[in-house]
Amino acid sequence: MEKRLKLFATKKIKDVKPDLLIDDLYSVYEQNYNILYSLLSKILAKHTGSYFNKETTIELMLTSNLGHRDIQINMNTLSSYTVDIEMHYREDYSEKINYIFNLRARLFLDAKILEVRRVDLNPDNLHGTDNSTMLKIDDSKPENIIQSNLTKSLIVNKWFKKLVIDRYNLK
Prior knowledge:
The protein is of the alpha+beta class and 171 residues long. The chain has one domain (26-170). It contains 3 helices and 7 strands; from the N terminus they run ααββββββαβ. The chain has a 7-stranded antiparallel β-sheet with strand order 6-5-4-3-2-1-7, covered by helices on one side. The longest helix has 30 residues, at 18-47. The protein is globular, with a radius of gyration of 19 Å. The N and C termini lie far apart (67 Å).
């Protein structure tokens, strides 16, 4: 009987130290920035620096050369080099798809990073109901905040890479 217990015994996984995750987090922040900047380079180059001195709202549309769903982008400038971005699939297609990917992020043009604020997967999110599937992680400890941000950023990184493969461009 004792041998069986040893077979099924589990060991505690040591907690990952937050310091080790910070490098990974900033690396993903930079990767996400680079991918988004490549998709939006024309509009961001036009509005960088002095052009963002006043608060501006910019609405853009990404379309795929392969005929995939359009993606709505709303950009709100907060300062010369800081922009809040919201991205989601265009609403007209909401009945034809089984999920909506809604992203809220902050783009820091001077630091060249994209910080993901919120990732939401839900078709009802665009229609005003609150049944969304968001990442719910206990952020009471600093290491949980870092893990939460890394998880959200990795989800967005995977989505951004798919947008590049699906040849999305500004409309």
